[in-house]
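B., you asked whether I could sanity-check this one before it goes into the benchmark set. Here's the sequence:
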Amino acid sequence: MTAITPMMQQYRDAKEACGDAILLFRMGDFYELFFDDAKDAAKILGLTLTSRDKGENPIPMAGFPYHQLDSYLRKLILAGRKAAVCEQVEDPKKAKGIVRREITRLVSAGAVTDDELLSPGESNYLFALWRPKIDSPKVGCAWAELSTGDFWAATVEAEELVDLLAAVRPAELLCRDDVPHGLPAHAVAFAVTTRPAWEFGPDTAGKHVRSRFGVRDLEGLGFGEEDVLAISAAGAALGYLLETQKTSLAHFDRLQRYETSAYVEIDAAARRSLELDASLRRGNREGTLLAALDRTETSMGARRLAQWMERPLRDAHEIARRQDAVEALVAARTVRRDLRDLLKQIYDLERLTARVATRRASPRDLRSIVEVLNRLPEIVKILEPLPPEIASSWLVELDLCEDVRSLLCESLADECPTVTRDGGFIRAGFREELDRLRELARGGKQWIAQYQAREAQRLGIPGLKIGFNKVFGYFIELTAAQALKAPADFIRKQTLKNAERFVTPELKEYEEQVLSADEKAIELEEALFIELRDAVEKQAARLRTTGGCLAQLDVLASFAEIASERRYVRPTIVEEPILRVEEGRHPVLDQLEREGTLVPNDCLLDEEHGTLALITGPNMAGKSTYIRQQALIVFLAQIGCFVPARSATVGIADRIFARVGASDDIFRGRSTFMVEMTETARILNLATRNSLVILDEIGRGTSTYDGVSLAWAITERLHDAIGCRCLFATHYHELTALAERLPRLRNLNVAVREWKDEVVFLHKIVPGGADRSYGIHVAKLAGVPNEVIGRAEDLLAAFESDPQRESDRKTVRRAPAKRRTEVQLTLFEAAPNPIVEELRELRLDAMTPLEALAWLNDRQKKIREEMR
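And here's what the prediction gave me:
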C-alpha cells in the first residue's frame, strides 16, 4: 500500500471537515481537486481530469489557476453545489515543513458576498425554518442576507409558509437533518442544506442571537416568549453563517420582526397570477410589474424596490409618508434629475460594508466606500430645496460618516488594486516607515541601473545587461566570449549554453537592500490595510444605515420618475374597503403597448355601487387584463407608488387574492381543476371584508353544469358571507341573473361591435351582462382551419335555434356540404322544464278561452324573463 504523503493527509483532513462540499485545495498558484471532487468538478467546470501518482492506484485530479476562483465558484453554485475554499494560511518562505492550510470559508447559494456570485439588483437570502414536530401548527422562519446584513424573523402558520417563501424567494433553505419538517413540496426549487436538530434548539440558537446583538434577553430586540420558534430559526441561520464564513458578522446589527399584520398578504398563487416579479411564460423579470416599475439607478435601490414589493404596507400613515416624498420629487423636477444623476455614480455601499464586515474587502472596496462618502455632501445639498418635513427625515438617517471618510481619504491612494500583494494602495505621507522603505526600494533600483552603465563602460561591453529572476536574484549576463574578460571580482553563478552569469559583492549587497525593502513595504501595507479594514468594520452599522437611506431615496425617486413619465397620480388611501378608479390603465401594458392604443377603464367598488363586479364578454376582449389591472393598482398604492389613472381612491386591503389562469401540479399529483379548486378554497376560507379578490373563469375545468353550479355558489359565498371587493370574470352568462337578488353585485361586460360579419373588440368595460362569448371568432383569429370554423358555426346555429328539440336527440349528424342549416345535434340530455310539465298537466276542457289566454300570456312573460 502506498504511503500517504503529508500533503495528501492534510487534504484528507480538510475534506473530512467540509462534508459534502467540493474542496478547493490551494497549492501554490492553483486550486487543486482530488478523488470524486475532481471527477464532479471536471464535468461541472469543464476541467481536464488528470491523475496524481500514476501507479497502480492513481488519484483523479483537476485544477485551475487561483485568480479564476470567483468564476469557478459561480459555476459550482449555479450547479447547486457547495464549495469549501482551503487556503495557504502561512508564507511558504517561512514555513517549516509543509505549508499550513485551513478552510477559510464555505460557499453555498445563500452564503456569498462576492459580486461575481451575486445578482446586483436581487436579494440573496438564506432562509432557515424550524418546525419542532411534523404536525406543529406554527413554523419558525428567519431569512438573512450575508451580502447586506438584512435579517428578518417570524413565526407563521404552517399553511402560510409557501406564501412567505414565494415572497422572499430565498437562494438556499436551511432545515433540520433528521426529517425535513415543514418543507413545502415545491422546496425542490431551492438549494437545501440540512443541519442537526440541536442547532435549532432554544439554548444553542438563542445563544447565537444574544451574542451577535449583545443582549441578555430577547425583549430588547422586540421578541417575546411567543417568538421562540422564530428565534430558533434565526439562531440556526447565524450559526450556519458563523461556521461557513469563519469571520465576523458585524454588519448583522439588527434582527427585524416580521409582523404579518403589518403587510398585505399575497399568496403564492396571486404572486404568480399577477406576475409581480416573474412572468408566467418565461419565469424571468421580462413583462412583470417589477420590470415595468424599476427606474432605480443603484443596485441598492433595485433590491429595496423588490423588498417593498415583497411586503406592501397596511399602515396608512407609512404609505402617506412614501407618497409625500414621491409627490415632492415629482414637483421638484430639477432636484429629481440631479439626485438621479448623482445616484448613478454611487457604488453598492451595503454590499461593500458586508465585505468589510466579513473581512473579504479589498483595497479597491475601501476606495469605493470613500467614493460613496465623498458624494454624500452633494446629495445633502441637492435635497435642501425640498420641503423641510420631507428632506429632514432623510437627512437624519443619512450619516455622512465624516470620520470614516477622513481616515480613508488620508490613507488610501486614488487608485487601489484588488489584492493587497500588489501594493501601492497606501497614500504617500500616511506612514513614515512605509515612505522610507519605498524610497529605499526606488533608490536601490536606480543604483542598479547606474551600476549597469558603469560596469558596461569599465569592461567595454556596451550591451551588458543586469537581469533578475526569483532563483538567483540580480545577475550580470555575459556571452561565452565576453566571459573570458570577466574581472576577478565577478563570481560565476550559472553557466548557460551560450552565456555565463555572474554576481559581484557590491551587486549582491544592493540586491538585498532592494528586495528587502520591497518585501517589507508590501508587508507593512498589508498590516496597515488590516488596521483600516478593522476601523471601518467598527462603523459597519452606520454605513449600513446610510446605504439603506440611499436605497430608499433611489426607490422614491424612481417612483417619482415613472409617475412623471407615465402620468401616474397619487391615490387617496382610506380605511374603508372601496376601490374607485377613473380611467385606470394596466401598469405593464401601459408601457408595452403603442402609445394611445391602451383603452383606459373605470372601476367602482363600494357599498353604494356594489362590491362584487361580475364581468362577462368575449374571449380576447380584455376581461382578464381588466381584473388584473385593478389588483395591480391596489398593489402599487400600498407600496407607496402613484398609480396609472386619472384619479383613484383605494381602501387598504389586508390580502390580495388572484385566481387566474390554468396550471396543474404534477409533482403533487393534482390536476388543473384540483389546483383551481384548492386555490379557490383558500380564498373562501381566508378572505375578509377588507380583502381584494380577483377570479377568472372559476369552474371551467369540469362539466358545464358542475362549473356553473360551483361558480354560482362561490359568487353567493363571496357576496353574502365575506362581502369583500371582488372582480369575477366569467363565460357563464347564467350568473348575470344573480344581480336581481344580490344587492351588491353588478354586471359588467366588455363592449363589442359587429360590422360586416366581423367582430371588433373595444376593450371598454360597460354596465350590463353579455350573452355571447365569440369563441369561434377568436378561434378563427388564432388560425384554426376554415373547415373546423365552418362546422363549429353550423353546430352553434343549430344549437341556438332549437336547443330543446336538439337536446332530445342522441346523435350529431354532419350536414351536407351546401346545407349546413340542416345539422342536428345533441350535447346534453334535456333537463326537465317546469312550464312543459305544467302544460302537460293542463286541463284545457275545464278552462274558458279567456282563462287559457291569460295563462298563456303569464307563461310567456316567465319564459322571456328566463331568456334574459
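One thing to flag: The chain is about 45% helix and 15% strand. Otherwise nothing jumped out at me.
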